[in-house]
Amino acid sequence: MRSTKTSRCRGALGALLTGAMALGLSTATTAVAATPATTRTTAAADCSGSVSVYGTLDDGRLTYSQIDPSTGDRIKTLIGPDLGFTPKAMATLNFNTVLVTDTAGALYRVDVKTNNLSLALMSAPVQIGTGWTHDKLVYDGHGHLYGTAGGVLIQYLVSQDKPAGSQHIGQRKEIGSGFVLKTLASSGDDRLLATASDGRLLEYRVDSTGGWSSSQLQPSGWSGFEKLLSPGGGLYYGATAAGGMYWYQDVNPDDGAGGDIVYHNDDPVDVSGWTQNLLSAEPETAECVGRQYAYVLPHGAVPRSELDDPHHDYAAIDIQVPTGTPVYAVTRGTVSHIDGGYGNGIQITGADGATYIYGHLDSRGVAAGATVTPGQYLGESGNTGQSTGPHLHFEIRVGGVKRCPQPMLLALYDGASPPSPGTLPTGGCSY
């Protein structure tokens, strides 16, 4: 079971990670996971989903870290292989795809595969462009890649999850000049978060014509951060020169004001250990709202078209995702572990009266008997039990009767209110 840690434990973990990175002792299969020390009965923030952070070390190795958005706990850090070039800027497109530039201006697509214990590349980084001399890159999760070069903010359209070149990253548009920023992140659809060298926390919004507006969220106090990240939902993460990682929640991220930002400085993610020279968060993976239902995977894990496929000879669905893909609770309920043909399976007895089953997980991140909230991390997809390949088996039962999960998954993927479990069909979704 994952639970929160004391600051002392976090400091020890940070020192361990710092030592491993600085001394070059970590290999491609090294995992530095958070060790539970104490249990907190209530979350520090009403947030759900997952925070996935890619990074690079000074020696060119790739890193992956995962943070619980509700508690600020670092769940794990994995250190992978050398990218083969000197990274300069980085933007995460989705859970398995990262864009990285080198110091010569070449743009690479890095295809990642990861599970609970290792981080590797699907293949060697693919060069997909030249002339990318940007000092910073961020992706907003909605098709727009932003970069700064010489103080100019530039917008690009990304039309594929795994772009192959200029045909998939184009429509270059200069948004404006004067963007001399210390850090840059994206907090949502055409929304940028930044800090200035004088410590101001700033927000920029870009409209459909390329026009932009700015807001000062905080007039000072943010100068200590060398890197800034946001997985959406009003969650902000700042990494210091000393390797500390701190987290904040903007209670109303849509109001263009920072007076409601909640500070967790007394309970950081880690007080040290974040020695990466680049950090980039997967966009739009966390939410801080009182939802009744949440999507069960990272939004970019599979295309929408995969969610309406018929499957099995009964109402259920198999979603093909790589081993190690985070899996989230669809609604509030109580967890029980199931095994057998489901392998590492999880069953949630929902507060709505329905039963939700997750099968073939690589690992389970919640204990039996735990109460979970919508979007809470449950574990990671895998290939355990009676399975012929990595995937997530998902099914819904109401009164013991299996219901087609496809309509609910499609609605949650679209950000719409899903149909109630009792109204889901019992047929038409199987072979």
TrEMBL record:
<dbReference type="Pfam" id="PF01551">
    <property type="entry name" value="Peptidase_M23"/>
</dbReference>
<keyword id="KW-0732">Signal</keyword>
<dbReference type="InterPro" id="IPR011055">
    <property type="entry name" value="Dup_hybrid_motif"/>
</dbReference>
<protein>
    <submittedName>
        <fullName>M23 family metallopeptidase</fullName>
        <ecNumber>3.4.-.-</ecNumber>
    </submittedName>
</protein>
<feature type="signal peptide">
    <location>
        <begin position="1"/>
        <end position="33"/>
    </location>
</feature>
<dbReference type="Pfam" id="PF14517">
    <property type="entry name" value="Tachylectin"/>
</dbReference>
<dbReference type="InterPro" id="IPR011047">
    <property type="entry name" value="Quinoprotein_ADH-like_sf"/>
</dbReference>
<feature type="domain" description="M23ase beta-sheet core">
    <location>
        <begin position="316"/>
        <end position="401"/>
    </location>
</feature>
<dbReference type="GO" id="GO:0016787">
    <property type="term" value="F:hydrolase activity"/>
</dbReference>
<dbReference type="InterPro" id="IPR050570">
    <property type="entry name" value="Cell_wall_metabolism_enzyme"/>
</dbReference>
<dbReference type="InterPro" id="IPR023294">
    <property type="entry name" value="Tachylectin2"/>
</dbReference>
<dbReference type="InterPro" id="IPR016047">
    <property type="entry name" value="M23ase_b-sheet_dom"/>
</dbReference>
<feature type="domain" description="Tachylectin 2">
    <location>
        <begin position="127"/>
        <end position="257"/>
    </location>
</feature>
<keyword id="KW-0378">Hydrolase</keyword>
